[in-house]
């Protein structure tokens, strides 16, 4: 798996993955809107993020310590979504040291109870928009294995919504990864324009996921949904 930023302990499974609903999970009840809050993670989110990654059933789960470090050192390039006091989803990412105009998306996770609501797309749009506004990043990168159709769809949709080019190239081969692992294909999106868009249209404060989308109390970031 890609090792992420070499300035921190190398996390396991640094490929970008998205879990889609399976089993009895169905579409949300339109009569029961959920209020999501998007904001930067804090170390207090490290444990819940590890548990959510484990619940996904498909992510390579890192140690709680790795998520705690990520929340401390890369909070500005990551996002968490909360529904009340529950962690609904998260995206972890970082700006590449050798290419600071590029945001690399490491992991994407959405809780089983919050799928089929476009939350992954909204988190990605929010994160890319926030990091672009603050740092001027122009590209988004992620690695996806050929069998991960959900991740492919997420990044294809993001590129389409932003009228941006999407290129693909093998970053790490099966030989490099070993153990019969599929190759990690680098998806590179950009250059990005402003404002950042998501499927369904540009992010706007009045277009929430089933309800108002506002940052949690005590955060400085602004929701762009």
From TrEMBL:
EC number: 2.3.1.178
Pathway: Amine and polyamine biosynthesis; ectoine biosynthesis; L-ectoine from L-aspartate 4-semialdehyde: step 2/3
GO biological process: ectoine biosynthetic process
Compositionally biased region (Low complexity): 208-225
Stretches assigned to the N-acetyltransferase domain: 36-197
Gene3D superfamilies: 3.40.630.30
Name of the protein this chain belongs to: L-2,4-diaminobutyric acid acetyltransferase
């Amino acid at each position: 798996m890609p090792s992420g930023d070499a300035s921190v302990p190398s996390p396991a499974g640094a490929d970008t993955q998205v879990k889609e609903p399976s089993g009895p999970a169905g579409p949300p009840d339109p009569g029961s809107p959920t209020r999501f809050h998007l904001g930067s993670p804090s170390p207090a989110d490290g444990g819940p993020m590890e548990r959510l990654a484990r619940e996904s059933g498909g992510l390579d789960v890192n140690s709680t310590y790795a998520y705690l470090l990520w929340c401390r050192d890369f909070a500005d390039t990551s996002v968490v979504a909360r529904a009340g006091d529950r962690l609904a989803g998260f995206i972890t990412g970082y700006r590449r040291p050798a290419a600071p105009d590029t945001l690399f998306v490491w992991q994407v996770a959405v809780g089983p109870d919050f799928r089929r609501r476009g939350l992954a797309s909204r988190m990605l749009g929010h994160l890319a928009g926030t990091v672009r506004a603050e740092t001027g990043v122009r590209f988004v990168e992620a690695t996806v294995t050929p069998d991960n159709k959900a991740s492919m769809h997420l990044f294809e949709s993001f590129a389409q919504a932003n009228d941006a080019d999407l290129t693909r190239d093998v970053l790490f081969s099966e030989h490099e990864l070993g153990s019969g692992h599929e190759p990690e294909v680098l998806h590179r999106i950009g250059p990005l324009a402003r404002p950042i868009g998501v499927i369904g249209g540009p992010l706007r404060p009045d277009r929430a996921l089933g309800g108002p989308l506002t940052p949690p109390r005590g955060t400085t970031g602004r929701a762009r949904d």
